[in-house]
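FAQ: What does the model actually see?

It sees only this:
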Amino acid sequence: MTQPELPVSLIEGDRYSTSVAAEIVTNNLGYHLPLYREQDIFAASGWVPHRSTLLNIKTAAAELVAPLVEFFADEVRKDEVIGSDDTGVVLLLPKVLPEIDPNDVRSARVHEVLSAAFETDKKHVSAKMWAYRGITVPLNIFDFTVSRHHDGPEQFLIDRNFRGTLIGDCYTANTGITLRSNNGITHAACNSHARRKVFEARDNHPQIASVLLAMFQELYDIEDRARHVDAAARLQLRQDEATLVWNRMREYLDGAVVKTLLPKDSMRTAINYLNNNWAALRVYLSNPLVPIDNNDTEQLMKQVAIGRKNWRAPDVPRRTSGRSPPRDALLIMFILNRGCLVSHRI
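And it is asked to produce this:
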């Protein structure tokens, strides 16, 4: 009588193979099922694991693939153009304040934010999940910070010597990145944001809105044609046609009709956004790899918004020294599960 060898397990002495970990991670982060629902699914098959068991398996899997995820992040940073966006997530506070790790540049900031929360008896803090999408490298990377401070892009891009163009909204973490990187990174603003602000103010000034929205439509029509040609032809098309539309928009924004708007008017706010970020909104005209907007990256945030209530991580039970903490495990496996989705690219 012979018996085949057991599959290699993630944890020494454990009887659960990597296929079990793959099922747990896919259900949790791919289908947005919290672990207690996974317990019910597994129970229907005759296996009734403790939630702590599922969490330990997921943490062990994250430790195993962490070098691969770091390799993916390095590959994205090799791209000339990276899109970035962020969204809020709730970080439940651990029972014990983590110590500052001298080998981890982020630990001091984490300790600072969590210490302030402990002092005011908070149960959670508002943290941020960031997405970074390579334009020519078909990978999507997610990152996590305990606040929306500019240390997100700084630590992911500047500290890792990225040089190129960052596409994102006009939040100060992005707009000031050129100065903080010693001109190593150029910020390209998202034209979809600018158009949206005009659209939302259309009820107060329909005539002004119709003129500006028509110009944005011309710009997007040009991009529809530019999407199907090579980089050189795309650049030529933008310079020959899109530049003329931008020049007309500049003339209209400087005209008499716009100057009559009151300072607190919503349309004035939209036009101030255009004026204040004029150069960043036009970066794509001189670089054929830069898209007109950041919509593809922003759509990645849907994956976070759908699942964020389902993967609030408690403290890791029976965690051994050196293992990844649960939120690190969540981030690593989220990148592996959702970060490799390839979307249509220009």
